[in-house]
Amino acid sequence: MVLESFFDYLSDIKKYSSHTLVAYREDLKQFDAYCNTINDIRDINDVTSKIIRNWVILKMSEGMTPTTVRRKISTLKTYFKYLLHEGIIENDPCEMVVMPKKGEKLPVFLHDYQMNEILDNEESDGSFSAVRDRLVILTAYLTGMRRSELVSLKVSELDFSSKHIVVTGKGAKQRLIPLVDELIEEMKYYLELRRDVVRFDHDIFFVTDKGKPAYDKFIYRLVVKYLRRFTTLSKVSPHVLRHTFATNLLNNGACIEAIRELLGHSDLSATQVYTHNSFEQLVKAYNQAHPRA
Asked: For FRET with 281, which of 13, 76, 209, 251 sits at 20 to 30 Å CA-CA?
């Protein structure tokens, strides 16, 4: 790596403090070691955006704070910008590297094996309320719907023959979400029980024990009560199931653009927060695959 001329530039031209220079030197030393040992990079022109992003992922998975990671990325951006200006490299690999948000809280989610334990339990008594409660959990987990979308879901929006539902999200925007066979069968059985509960005509899919349309707090309390029976998470809510839907899709190979469409996000940045939850999977893959891990 071209270092000494870079530090002369920072010291003489940019007038950086000695403390900053020490921090920059340590950042570049760590990145150089990563390039040489993990990727066997010997030429600075061979450094790519992917290599930098993977380094960032590794640092965050090791428990480094977003603030520290942002500083390290800033070091690399300054360094590669200098190399580009000096004609040492042709392209800046930092252009496609995004800074993690400061203090960003990662979504709380359940692993797929935890959801299997929750959904495969045999504690249901077969009553309407028990069937409905489980179906709310299953629907949220298999579709990623928001709480408000679960509340407003209509029977007429279900298309079992085409295996999808029409979901009306924020801003009245509609999207299609596929239905798996398990969910279709559970919904059909629920609808049979629902006929005996609903005493007046309305199209809302989820209803209370008295047959009235479910409301926001009803769904919230139902999910919280259900999840607390089977998990030890300090925070449980319908949104945890939405986070679980997205995170498990990502960890099992779904592309982030497809997840964005399924979640109904208008901006990809809202979906990218789930990529941080794949750190565990990336580190696991690294430890299993790298001969020196």
From this structure: 76
Residue pLDDT, tens place only, 255-289: 888 889 999 988 777 787 776 555 555 555 556 66
Identify whether 228 is a catalytic site residue. Answer: no
Q: What angle do CA 286, 293, 246 make, to 5 degrees?
A: 20
Tokens linked to 217: 């707090």
Instruction: Give a yes or no: residue 102 inside a domain.
Output: no
- Amino acid of residue 57: I
The angle formed by the CA atoms of residues 240, 188 and 263, to the nearest 5 degrees, is: 30
Q: What CATH number is associated with residue 218?
A: 1.10.443.10
239 is annotated as an active-site residue: yes
Structure tokens at 80: 């590669």
Residue 68 lies in a domain: yes
Tell me which of 16, 220, 239, 286 is the catalytic residue. Answer: 239
Considering the domain architecture, whether residues 178 and 235 belong to the same structural domain is answered as: yes
The amino acid at residue 96 is M
Domain region containing 232: 112-284
Is 225 a catalytic site residue? no
Spell out, as residue ranges, where the chain has pLDDT lower than 50: 293
Question: Distance (Å, rounded) from C-alpha 179 to C-alpha 142?
Answer: 8
Structurally, how many domains does the chain consist of? 2
In a domain, 290, yes or no: no
Judge whether 79 counts as a catalytic residue. Answer: no
Does residue 245 contact residue 138 with C-beta atoms inside 8 Å?
Answer: no
| pLDDT tens digits for range 35-67 | 888 767 778 888 988 899 888 888 887 778 888
Distance of alpha carbon 110 from alpha carbon 87, whole angstroms:
49
